[in-house]
Amino acid sequence: MALTPEQQSQLDGFKRKVQYLAQTRSILEADRLWNAFLAGEGDSLTLADCQMCLALLHYPDADLYDWVSGLKPAPEALDPSWLQRLAKYCT
Fold first, then answer.
1. DSSP letter string, 8-76
2. What is the largest CA-CA distance in the chain?
3. Where along the sequence do coiled-coil regions lie (predicted)?
4. How much is the pTM?
5. What is the mean pLDDT for each group of 10 consecutive residues in the chain (91 residues)?
6. Domain ranges within the chain, ordered by starting residue
């Protein structure tokens, strides 16, 4: 489905915000995780994907990294498929 110019503008804005927040992480592991994820999937992110990324980026880096890497169980409120999607980029 093609996006309207307004929808495309909104999506581009979300992508820029996700990329900015991903580049300003407080721990190196989180920075690497988000940068690898964006390099692999950034061009194909949908508006819903960007909204999920923004929600995840509001969690503390150490917690999110522990959940993605399987060191700690994630809260039930988080979508496990998203954590698995990020885990592919966890090094």
1. HHHHHHHHHHHHHHHTT-SSHHHHHHHHHHHHHHGGG--HHHHHHHHHHHTS-HHHHHHHHHTSSPPPT
2. 42
3. none
4. 0.82
5. 84 88 84 90 89 90 92 92 91 69
6. 5-87
